Amino acid sequence: MMILADKIVMLRKKNGWSQEELAEKMNVSRQSVSKWESGNSIPDLNKILLLGQIFDVSTDFLLKDELEAEPEMYNQEESRNQQGEYVKRVSLEEVRKYLSRVTDYIKMIRLGVAMCILSPIALMVLDDGARAGVISLPENAAGGIGICVLLLLVSGAVALFIMGSMKMEEFEYLEREIIELEYGVAGILTEEKREKELRSRMYIVIGVILCILSPVFLIIADSMNASEMTETLMTALMFGMVSGAVVLFITAAMTQGAYDRLMQAGDYTKKKKRENKKAEKVQKIYWPSVTTVYLLCSFISGRWDISWIIWPLAAVGSSVVTAVINWNEK
């Protein structure tokens, strides 16, 4: 049996390096290397990956105590469990790559959703501004420009959604297939997830507060009999606050979801994966239909200030549809 600390000592000496030389290659202090080798601390995820690259060994070898050499069997990407299902092995390198890709994906989704929520603002401000004489544009021209801005923002958001989905296609198996993390990876992920949970809770709290406070300025303007243009600006401010809240919700939910996928927890347990295969077919039709209904209702009614309520209702409806499908399967 060789623990990580012993392997670091062995590999360092095998390469003829001192603690100072290894510390320099790792961009850490000699004291950090000393603590790793004595077992008083454990390198974080990035440092373990770097150790594997420097020593030219797999992270599985570094983390699995009973491995004193690297048998070829651990290079197998798939095996079968007792139920005869294919189980895909996921290495620490693959986990790190996935989390890095998720970070970029979250940024794209946040921006795209914010663009969708904020897209009607130009139309509302230009249209009401032209009618009030605040903006020196004919009403038709102002409305046309506003619609063009709206469509540009929505099309840009759709492009971001598509590009983001394409970036994540490589990791779709995490949502559908049964996986097995290499030895030691689950412990590292548990620690990382615990560190991020506090931040995610803070994002949710701030987001809820923003949602609650978002109509306050519009209510104040209405109670003071403010001009129509002022109310429009307050509506735009409300959209901005809602957008900020949704961005925070997305960050918290998608970060949590990324770790749940890797650890097969929450909505991605083995049982849920089997159930979701049926629900996915319905969801592919459900959300495009919701988008169509949202745009039709908004354009026909012109009430962009209230049509956004379709989205939270659709989210609830999505959960109901999934629950009904799974119940019927049982």
UniProtKB/TrEMBL annotation:
Entry annotated with the keyword DNA-binding: yes
Gene3D superfamilies linked: lambda repressor-like DNA-binding domains (1.10.260.40)
Pfam families reported for this sequence: HTH_3 (PF01381)
Keyword Transmembrane helix: yes
Sorted UniProt keywords: DNA-binding, Membrane, Transmembrane, Transmembrane helix
Domain HTH cro/C1-type: 8-62
Residues annotated as transmembrane: 108-126, 141-163, 202-221, 233-254, 285-302, 308-327
One Gene Ontology term of the molecular function aspect: DNA binding
The name this protein goes by in its record: Helix-turn-helix domain-containing protein
Species this protein is from: Candidatus Eubacterium avistercoris
